[in-house]
Amino acid sequence: MPIEHRSTHRARRALARISFLTLAASALVVSAQAQAANLGFLNNTPITYMKQRDLQALNDAAQKALNTKQDGESLDWDNKGTGNTVPINGTVTPQSSFESDGLKCRKVELVAHAKGQTQTWMPTACKQSDGKWKLKKQ
Predict the structure, then answer these.
(1) DSSP alpha helix (H) spans, 1-138
(2) Which residues are CB-neighbours of 108 under 8 A, at least 6 positions away?
(3) What confidence tens digit (pLDDT) does each residue in 35-85 have?
(4) Does residue 109 contact residue 95 with C-beta atoms inside 8 Å?
(5) Where is the sequence biased in composition, kind Polar residues (predicted)?
(6) Exposed, middle or buried by CB within 10 Å (0-12, 13-18, 19+), for 83?
(7) Which of the listed residues 8, 34, 94, 138 has the most CB atoms within 10 Å of its CB?
């Protein structure tokens, strides 16, 4: 398989894996789907190095930040202990809070750093009746 095709295939596999997680995964998928016609832009970006346990670490950090941090206050996260040999870290920063359809919602900035590259996503999450934050459909 040519190197470029392997990278695109790896990016597609990464996107398929993340589509099943909650907030963090949804944010990554939404960001990527905007450019789904050409996944080459994902080559060598943090998302291509993230495995399911890394995404869960990001999701856990997002849930914690949304529950405990004020707007503009960041929570650091990393993938230590996930088993991934690629170190990945970043921040989760709630940006603004508001109500939508009777739910508390917050815009949140998710940042990931891996192998000298940085990716940023800005989804909106709303707190559900079960207490979990879920991505607001746009």
Answers:
(1) 3-18, 23-33, 46-49, 52-68
(2) 23, 27, 62, 65, 66, 92, 93, 94, 95, 122, 123, 124, 125
(3) 444 666 666 788 888 999 999 999 999 999 999 999 999 999 999 999 999
(4) yes
(5) 81-99
(6) exposed
(7) 94
In Å, how far are 2, 23, 39, 82, 138 from 129, measured between CA atoms? 48, 15, 35, 29, 20
> Euclidean distance between the first and final Cα of the chain, in Å?
37
* Other Cβ atoms within 10 Å of 17 Cβ, number: 16
CA distance 18 to 23: 10
Whole-number pLDDT of residue 137: 80
Burial environment of residue 10 by CB neighbours within 10 A (0 to 12, 13 to 18, 19 or more): middle
- What values do phi and psi take at 63, rounded to 5? -60, -45
Q: Residue 34, Cβ neighbours under 10 Å: how many?
A: 8
List the structure tokens of 107.
């815009």
The residue among 137 and 126 whose pLDDT is bigger is: 126
pLDDT tens track for 12-47: 444 333 333 444 544 454 444 444 446 666 667 888
> Position of tokens 């192998």?
115
